[in-house]
Automatic annotation (TrEMBL):
It comes from Spiroplasma ixodetis. Zn(2+) binds at C407, C410, C425, C430. Its cofactor is Mg(2+); Mn(2+). This is DNA ligase. The keyword Ion transport does not apply. It comes from the Bacteria. Gene3D superfamilies: 5' to 3' exonuclease, C-terminal subdomain, BRCT domain, DNA ligase/mRNA capping enzyme, Helix hairpin bin, Nucleic acid-binding proteins. Residues 589-666 form the BRCT domain. Belongs to the NAD-dependent DNA ligase family. LigA subfamily. Keywords: DNA damage, DNA repair, DNA replication, Ligase, Magnesium, Manganese, Metal-binding, NAD, Zinc. The active site is at K118 (n6-amp-lysine intermediate).
Length: 671
């Protein structure tokens, strides 16, 4: 090899290693050490060298893998047909109801079902064209998912080539076996990396990984169970669809069974409920599907789920452990919740250390005592709950529970007005109540202010920079003070300030929910915002008008009226108005005023890519990945990448997040 070629080879190898290291820092450690510019220039240099010197090509190069762009560069794929969820059944009665409803709609008494294991993984959709795997996507919001094609290609059991030419879309579940999950977690532990809670989380973390080396090192697997539009290919039953998929080379879960009636379905369920722990992968129930595909259209679907199938969920899993302590906490409304500290116990794949005990009466009614052995239940995403003591095991000196008399934080005497089961701290200046109200206001489903987490809010409260919700909007004037805090750099301040500014434009329902008006949850906030359109209209609403609103009623009406009559709350609203918060309901679809416009993102922004997609979709606009002549706007954040230069070259309008907000405000006004 000539000297020059040798130098090139060395440079290529060095670039590859460097880029892999940066990928690792970015994706795995979540701690990038280089700017986008430096990354991009190194990456492009490598691409150029690899093009010029193909003799040094290697499949191991980061240019051949997907691990070379930030996590949010996963592009969206729109599903040809929405990816729905399934309705749930929890007992035999629910199944009978499902069966009867089907018989009624189809006027048919002999219904055959196919039962399948409900694999606890992630649903995916794969498309094939001309016999070749074209795309693979996650479920996402059901309408569009993320492009995970490259990662799916690493799964050996998913065929890349199938023996048919026509277009095919198949759906299924990606999962990790219990064994593989344990292996991955052992490795995480050895490397001092955070552990995955369960195989499902580990699979989710892997499938969205952009570092192909990591994906490759974890043995993801997939079962396929859904042949989209099978009837178009002359397939008449689900049974036949499964056989066909298998014939094409897909991996089908072999435990499926054809059942002649719902009684047989129940026997199948009982069988697998018992066998569940012996399976090499996690299942969380059984999926029951009508066998006759030709009846699917007649049965139709709801917004969320088809009516031709149902998911039987296994009962929540319980376990026994020791109750080490009982302690109360104060919520934003002053409500006292009692919590259990437990000897750590693994339930359904996750370690449980704390569980809720709800209120004092709940504990007294069950006579739960500290040091008792107790049964603990964990159902899905619901907070673990202590169910009952194991009385037979009780030691004589286990400590009998007594309700707290004073607030655990501000020491104010607690109130409980029967028949109310909860005790309340009625001190509105209680620091725990204030902290929790602020956390609620900033939370994702409320004003979605990123960066104001519990720790930071606590710090700002201690420093008296915040006393109440409206003070959040004054934080942007405390730049110097905030920058003087340890570990608070210019970048975190800018991100925080942007997020605060952006939140001012939120639609009314987010603000209403964020204010924490008693009984006004997310759904009620939407109903109120849609009906009254502005905060002022709502503040002027009469009790009768409120109480007569569908789904509102007298309790919520009283709570809303009381809230706005309270002078402290009136002052808060005044302050928020002075900070120029949007008080109007911004109708989604009100205007697809940005229809046809395309946006591209670059640099670090205060919202995730998905959040921008959601925001802009509401206005009819789209987000794409690359700058072209068709790009309408480039939204620029901190440390923009190459896209900025490309946009300048093509004369694409360049705006920052604040300008985007102004633009949206402007178009919404005019639209
Ligand atoms: S059929 C229209 N079959 O369970 C939806 N789903 O609770 C068709 N799942 O979103 C889904 N195993 O992610 C089906 N054998 C199976 C399944 C299964 C797991 C998941 C799937 C679905 C969720 C619904």
């Amino acid at each position: 090899m000539s000297n020059k070629n040798n130098d090139i080879k060395i440079e290529i190898i060095q670039l590859r290693n460097q880029i892999k290291q940066w990928n690792y820092e970015y994706h795995v450690l979540d701690a990038p050490t280089v700017s986008d510019e430096l990354y991009d220039s190194a990456y492009h240099r490598l691409v150029k060298l690899e093009e010029q010197y193909p003799q040094f090509n290697s499949n191991d190069s980061p240019t051949k893998t997907v691990g070379n762009k930030p996590i949010n560069s996963l592009t969206k794929i729109f599903h040809q047909q929405p990816m729905l969820s399934l309705g749930n059944a929890f007992n035999y009665e629910d199944l009978l109801k499902f069966d009867q409803q089907i018989k009624k709609t189809l006027s048919e008494n002999n219904i055959e079902y196919v039962c399948e294991l409900k694999i606890d993984g992630l649903s995916i959709s794969i498309t094939y064209e001309k016999g070749e795997l074209k795309t693979a996507a996650t479920r996402g919001d059901g309408i569009a998912g993320e492009d995970i094609t490259n990662n799916i290609l690493t799964i050996k059991t998913i065929p890349k080539i199938i023996p048919i030419n026509s277009k095919l879309e198949v759906r299924g579940e990606i999962y990790l076996s219990k064994e593989e999950f344990n292996r991955i977690n052992e490795k995480q532990q050895q490397q001092n990396l955070p552990l995955f809670a369960n195989p499902r989380n580990a699979a989710a973390g892997t499938i969205r990984q952009l570092d192909i080396n990591i994906v490759n090192s974890r043995k993801l697997d997939g079962f396929l169970y859904y042949y989209i539009n099978a009837t178009n290919d002359n397939i008449k039953t689900h049974e036949q669809a499964l056989f066909t998929l298998q014939k094409y080379g897909f991996k089908i879960n072999e435990q499926w069974q054809l059942c002649k009636n719902i009684e047989e379905v129940w026997i199948y369920i009982q069988k697998y409920q018992k066998l569940r722990n012996t399976l090499p992968y996690e299942i969380d129930g059984i999926v029951i599907k009508i066998n006759d595909l030709t009846s699917y259209d007649m049965l139709g679907r709801t917004n969320k789920a088809p009516k031709w199938a149902i998911a039987y969920k296994f009962p929540a899993v319980t376990s026994v452990t020791k109750l080490l302590d009982i302690f109360p906490t104060v919520g934003r409304t002053g409500k006292i919740t009692y919590n259990a500290r437990l000897q750590p116990v693994i339930i359904a794949g996750t370690t449980v250390t704390f569980a809720t005990l709800h209120n004092g009466d709940y504990i007294i009614n069950r006579d739960l005592r500290i040091n008792d052995l107790v049964s603990v239940k964990k159902a899905g995403d619901i907070i673990p709950e202590v169910i009952a003591p194991i009385i037979s095991n009780r030691q004589i000196n286990n400590i009998i529970f007594k309700k707290a008399i004073n607030c655990p934080v501000c020491k104010t005497k607690l109130e409980q007005v029967p028949p109310e089961v909860d005790q309340f701290c009625i001190n509105s200046d209680c620091s725990s109540r204030i902290l929790k109200s602020l956390m609620h206001f900033c939370s994702r489903n409320a004003m979605d202010i990123i960066g104001l987490n519990e720790k930071i809010l606590l710090r700002f409260l201690d420093l008296k920079w915040i006393k109440t919700i409206s003070d959040i909007y004054n934080l942007i004037n405390l730049r110097k003070e905030i920058l003087s805090l340890p570990r608070f750099g210019e970048k975190s301040f800018t991100n925080l300030a942007n997020s605060i500014i952006l939140s001012k434009q939120n639609s009314l329902e987010r603000l209403l929910f964020g204010l924490g008006i008693r009984h006004v949850g997310q759904k009620t906030a939407i109903i109120l915002a849609k009906k009254y359109l502005t905060l002022n209209n709502l503040m002027e609403a009469t009790f009768d008008d409120l109480a007569n609103t569908n789904e509102i009623g007298p309790i919520i009406a009283t709570s809303v009226i009381d809230y706005f009559l309270n002078p402290t709350n009136q002052q808060l609203i005044n302050n928020l108005q002075n900070f120029k918060l949007n008080f109007n309901y911004l109708q989604k679809n009100q205007s697809q005023v940005l229809n046809g416009k395309t946006f591209v993102l670059t640099g670090t922004l205060t919202k995730s890519r998905n959040e921008f997609i959601e925001l802009l979709n509401n206005y009819g606009a789209k987000i794409t990945n690359t700058i072209s002549n068709n790009t309408s706007y480039l939204i620029v954040g901190e440390n923009p990448g190459n896209k900025l230069a490309q946009a300048r070259k093509l004369n694409v309008k360049i705006i920052n997040e604040e300008q985007l907000q102004n633009l949206l405000k402007e178009v919404a006004k005019n639209g």
